[in-house]
Amino acid sequence: MSNRRPATMKPPISIISVILTILITACTGGDKETIAMLDRAEALMEDYPDSAYTLLYNIDSLRIESDDVPSSLRARYYLLLGTAMNKTNRPMAFDSLFQHTVVDYYDRHGSRNDQMRARYILGCICRDEHDSPRAIEWYLSAADCADTLSSDCDYLTLMRIYGQMAEVYLRQQMVQDNIESQRKYSKYAAKCDNTYEYIRGIELQVSAYLQLKDTAGVFTITDSVYRLYIQNNMPREAASVYPTAIYVHLLNHNYAKAKRLMDIFEHQSGLFDSNGEIEKGREHYYLSKAMYYHGTNKPDYAAYFYRKLIDFGYNLDGYRGLLGLSIDGYMRDSLTHYAQKYENCLACTESDINIESMQNVKGLYDYSRNQRAAHTAELKAAKTRYTLYIIIIFAVVLLAILSWLTIARKQRKESEIKQLNEMLANVQAMLEHKKQEMEDLHRDRALFEQNHQNEIERLQHLLESTRSELQGKKTEVSTLIKQLEAGQKLVSGWKMYEDDSHVRNSNVFGKLKAMTVNPVNTIMTQADWQQFLDLCESSMPKLCSKMRSSGLSDIQSQVVLLVRLGFSNGDIVRITGKDKQNVRNHKSRACKRMFGTDSAESLYQLLVMFDGVENKN
Fold first, then answer.
1. Is 332 exposed, middle or buried (0-12, 13-18, 19+ CB in 10 A)?
2. Which of 185, 208, 263, 536 has a beta carbon 3.0–4.6 Å from 201's, enabling a disulfide?
3. Dist. CA 119–CA 138, nearest whole Å
4. Longest dimension (CA), the chain
């Protein structure tokens, strides 16, 4: 994940559209056309950054810098240009212009996301200028701008910020900061629903743990990342996580474990061609191959891979390995030769490290010096502003005092007269207001008393009416009870007129009977219930018509039919799966709707009476 920039290897798009946009802009000119090109470049930026850069490069820079171009348009142009150059790995070296044109503008007029993106690109510019301290400062400032509580937070840019910080920290040997940045990279990759980058952020922590010499951490993270790749159906990526673990096993002389991982890496990662050559840029893996053959007493193979390392520019590792083979007695005649080669490479490496360290120190010194200069200039400007503010305030106060002395005497008398008039008017208005309040109170009191009396009379009338209605209901209930008692005495002699034998002889009736004995192993499906209802409809049409006209629910209809066919309460509980109280409630409500009484116990007798009466009629 070099520089954590999106890959530029995208499917080609139509170059004609880009050329047409450039020609239209060149011919027509004006801010509208420039805005249209910026919109087009922004639309292409994520997937086709090279095309976006081409569009931006062909916008007339003199036109952008002219005084009649709005600062918002200029800021947007340079932000998009910096973004395109960053995505296409083009070096940027215009930090001062970018800071004053883009960052300062979005600080005043942009959203939190705009401010974050501007600071991020400025950090990348400082990175390309090898100014790591300023790059980190701008990255941290960009991250501080992110509003992670907002629903429109740009998590993609925030993810990239921490990716860049991780690489800078790695170059500066700040291992713990690198690990923390990688963790935040993974966190915000997950916010973007980017599973690969989420796992990749964890994977890149392996090299940091190797620098800490935490081999247990190396193996733990490697195994975790491998499982994550497999769980997300990325087998090649899973097989590609093992080079560091292989190297650690070889350092510990665990050649069997190293060999097992090497086989997975070489045969399942898809990084090797048919000749066994690894993908370009990953040739340092040949060191592990050479170490394995060296440690397993296969010097010819080891020497072959040490020389391949030298061919790909890894001279120090290559000559060190060949020197080790010579010391071990495999190439004694070459001992002096490889010792000299290794010493030269070591000297060059130390020189490079010293130069890099000096550059880092110089960067820190320049940064500190610039910070001190900026702070001094800021203090000087602040002192000048404060002095000017004091002079202005003093002049304003003096002018106000003189003005007040000039008009104070005249205004004093006018103010006294005005205050007296206002007090008199206020008193008169207060008296009128109190008088009106008294009249309103008398009127409201009379109205309240009248309404109160009317309400009392209405409630008394309602009470009498309720008592009368209650007495009538009591009489009606007594009559129904007497009728029910009389019906219970006669019900044994009544005969069902609707023939239910067709229902009782059916398979579904047998299934219902089976459920009363073993409800667990017997299940009534929706089709069974529909067949049962159709049979009841054909055999007992008048009862079914009565149920429909009474507005029974499906479960109430089922309960009534089961009662009519002689099933007990316990049977109905086992058939319907309802509890006993629920069945009782359904019987009571069905009885109320069909016969006007909510007596659940009387439902069967009432059904018998209804069947006999209806059929007699």
1. exposed
2. 185
3. 6
4. 128
315-327 vs 335-490: helix crossing angle, rounded to 10: 110
For the residues of 430-458, what is the DSSP string, one character each?
A: HHHHHHHHHHHHHHHHHHHHHHHHHHHHH
For residues 30 and 15, the answer to whether their CB atoms sit within 8 Å is: no
The answer to whether 246 and 262 have CB atoms below 8 angstroms apart is yes
603 closest CA partner among 537, 554, 546, 530 = 546
Helix residue spans in 255-334 (DSSP H) = 255-268, 286-295, 299-311, 315-327
The residues, any chain, with a CB within 8 Å of residue 388's CB and separated by 6 or more, are: none
Q: pTM of this prediction?
A: 0.53
What does the alpha-carbon distance between residue 478 and residue 485 come to, in Å, rounded to a whole number? 11
Q: Render 170-212 in DSSP notation, one character per residue.
A: HHTT-HHHHHHHHHHHHHHHHHTT-HHHHHHHHHTHHHHHHHT
Alpha helix (H) ranges present in 88-154? 95-98, 104-109, 112-128, 132-145
State the DSSP code for 7. P
Pull the structure tokens for residue 395.
């002049």
Beta carbons of 88 and 8 less than 8 angstroms apart: yes
Angstrom distance (rounded) from CA 611 to CA 536:
14
Q: How many helices (H) and strands (E) does the chain have?
A: 29, 0
Residue 272: φ, ψ to 5°: -120, 140
Nearest to 3 by CA among 126, 166, 137, 210: 166
Instruction: Give the span between the Cα atoms of 243 and 264, in whole angstroms.
Output: 10
List, in sequence order, the alpha helices (H) in 58-103: 61-65, 71-87, 95-98
- CA 580/CA 179 separation, integer angstroms: 64
Which phi and psi angles does 4 have, rounded to 5°?
Answer: 50, 30
Token output for 526: 């929706």
Instruction: Give the number of other Cβ atoms within 10 Å of residue 156's Cβ.
Output: 17
Closest CA to 292 of 338, 326, 333, 260: 260
pLDDT tens across 505-517, in order?
888 898 888 888 8
Q: Among candidates 491, 607, 487, which has minimal Cα distance to 547?
A: 607
User: What does the alpha-carbon distance between residue 145 and residue 124 come to, in Å, rounded to a whole number?
Assistant: 16
User: What sign has the CA pseudo-torsion 143, 149, 153, 155?
Assistant: positive
- Burial code (b: 16+ CB inside 10 Å, e: under 16) for 61-92 equals eebbeeeeeeeeebbbbbbbbbbbbbbbeeeb
Residue the block writes with tokens 């079914």: 544
The length of the chain, given as a count of residues: 617
Residue ranges of the chain whose pLDDT lies below 70: 1-30, 60-62, 331-343, 346-383, 386, 473-474, 476-497, 612-617
Radius of gyration of the chain (CA): 46
> Residue 555's CB: how many other CB atoms inside 10 A?
15
Extents of the domains making up the chain: 343-491, 498-616
